[in-house]
Amino acid sequence: MVGAHLGRLTRSASGAPRLYAEALRRDDIHPPEERTVVNAQDNARTTETAGERSAPRGDGIVIAIDGPSGSGKSSTARGTARAREMRYLDTGAMYRALTWWVLHNGVDATTADAAAVARLAAQPVITMGTDPTDPTVRVDGTDVAEDIRSPEVTSGVSAVSAVPEVRERMVALQRDIIAEARRDSGGIVVEGRDITTVVAPEAEVKIYLTASAEARAERRSREVRTSDIAATRADLMRRDLFDSSRAESPLTQTEDALELETTGMSLDEVIALVVKLADEASGEVVPSTGAV
Ligand SMILES: Nc1ncnc2c1ncn2[C@@H]1O[C@H](COP(=O)(O)OP(=O)(O)O)[C@@H](O)[C@H]1O
Ligand SMILES: Nc1ccn([C@H]2C[C@H](O)[C@@H](COP(=O)(O)OP(=O)(O)O)O2)c(=O)n1
Basic and acidic residues bias located where (predicted)? Predict the structure, then answer.
C-alpha cells in the first residue's frame, strides 16, 4: 500500500485543489500551496475568523474532514487517528445524539418547529469519547451509540442540525474538545459538514472527501446490508441536498480544502494518503518539491 501510485492533484473549476486516484506516487503528494500550513512549533499563534473564538494551539495538530454522506469521512478519520495516535471526533454523532434526545422526548424531529427543537436540544449533557479505537457518545450518561444510527434518527437529523441554536451549542462543544486535544495529545481528526469552514478553519490539514453518488450508495448499502441501492442512494441525495442548502453552516467546499475524490480508492489507500498529508503538516515528513 505505502509507496503505491495513488493520486493526481489538479484544480477543480472553482480553483480548489483536487486529488484523483490515478498515477502519482505517494511520495509526490503534498498539500496544496493555498492551504494555510501552520507549523506545529508555532505554539503562540491563535487564529481569529469572523465570529470565531480564538483556538489555543499546543503541539497537537487538527485534521478537518468534510464531505457528503457515505464519502468515507468516519472510516477515514478513525483510521487516520488510529494510525497517528490522535483523538477522533465524529461531529455527525453529536447531531444524531441531539436528534435522538428530541425523539426520546416524543417530538417528531422532522415536523417539529425550530423553537421546540432548540428548547429541547439545550437540555442534555452530550459527552463524546474521542478514543478512535472506542469512540463513545452519551446523552445524560446514557450510551446512545447504537440508537443514534436508527432510521428514525437518520430521517430527523438534517432538520435538527439546521436549527441555529443546536449548531451554536454543538460547535462550542466541538471547539472545546479540539482545544483540549491540541493541548493534551497528538491532536485530533474531526469530521462532519462544517469542520473546514466553521468549526476549525485553522486546521493544519483540511480535506473535502468525495466519491460518486453511485460509489457512496454502494458503500452505504454494503454497510447496512441492503440490496436496495436505489433507495439508499435516494436517502443520501435527500440528506446531501438538505445539508448543503440549509441557511446555517451548509456543507460547502472551500478553495483551501484539498478535495479528495475517492471513487476508485480503497479505504486503506485513502487513510494512507491522509496520514501522509498529516505527517507533512506536522513536520514529520518534508514535502517533496515535485510539480503538482
Ligand atoms: N474508499 C473506500 N472504499 C470502499 N469503502 C469505503 C471507502 N471509504 C469508506 N468506505 C465504507 O463506506 C461506508 C460509509 O463510510 P463512512 O466512513 O461511514 O462515510 P461517511 O462518514 O462519510 O458517511 C463504510 O462502510 C465504510 O467502511
Ligand atoms: N458537522 C456536522 C456533522 C453532521 N451534520 C448533520 C448533517 C448530517 O446529515 C447529519 C448526520 O451526520 P453523519 O456524519 O452521521 O452522517 P452520515 O450518515 O455518516 O452521512 O448531521 C451537520 O450538520 N454538521
Answer: 23-36
User: Is residue 231 within 8 Å of 215, Cβ to Cβ?
Assistant: no
Distance (Å) from CA 132 to ligand 2 centroid: 18
Distance 203 CA to ligand 1 centre (A): 22
Write down the pLDDT at residue 283. 83
The verdict on residue 153 lying in a domain is yes
- Looking at residue 47, its pLDDT comes to 32
Instruction: Tell whether ligand 1 has an atom less than 6 A from the beta carbon of residue 270.
Output: yes
Indicate whether 132 belongs to any domain.
yes
288 is in an annotated binding site: no
The reply to whether 286 falls in a domain is: no
Nearest-CA residue for atom 15 of ligand 1: 72
Nearest CA to ligand 1 atom 8: 72
Question: Which residue CA neighbors atom 14 of ligand 2 most closely?
Answer: 92
Could you list the beta-strand ranges (E) of the chain. 8-11, 17-20, 61-66, 87-90, 126-129, 136-139, 142-143, 187-192, 205-210, 258-261
Q: Which CATH number fits the domain that encloses residue 87?
A: 3.40.50.300
> What's the pLDDT at 57?
52
In whole angstroms, give the CA distance from residue 292 to residue 284.
21
- From the CA of 91, how far away is ligand 2's center (Å)? 7
Total structural domains in the chain?
Answer: 1
**Mean pLDDT of each 10-residue bin along the chain, 292 residues long:** 46 60 40 31 30 52 97 98 97 98 92 90 96 98 97 94 96 97 95 97 96 96 92 93 91 92 95 95 69 40
Sheet with 8-11, side-by-side order of all strands: 8-11, 17-20, 258-261, 205-210, 61-66, 187-192, 87-90
Range of the domain at 146: 8-281
Q: Which three cell numbers stand for residue 86?
A: 490522535
- Can you tell me the ipTM of this complex? 0.98
Q: What is the pLDDT of residue 19?
A: 61
